[in-house]
Amino acid sequence: xxxxxxxxxxxxxxxxxxxxxxxxxxxxxxxxxxxxxxxxxxxxxxxxxxxxxxxxxxxxxxxxxxxxxxxxxxxxxxxxxxxxxxxxxxxxxxxxxxxxxxxxxxxxxxxxxxxxxxxxxxxxxxxxxxxxxxxx
Length: 136
Fold this sequence. Notes:
mainly alpha, 0% strand
């Protein structure tokens, strides 16, 4: 019976050693898993921060470009307005000049017609009186 007891004690001792080794392996694996989780978490956090930083930079760039585009659009609209104003003023000026030129031309035509009418009247008169002188 002692032999059986000794064998049982030996088995218990071996099982305790194996259990202790398994428990130590479990603790080691848990520690290793925790370190790996921390590494992955740290790595993902860093990547996330970099992605957010890039996104923010792109957002700022987009906003700056949008403001620049709006400013350019405003300048183009202002230039367009000024060009239209200038062209409208020039058109009005040309219309007035045209009216003045037409009025001047009409006046010159009228003066020429009056001069021709006087000359014609004088010629008719000279001919009429000149014919009377030839007849008498």
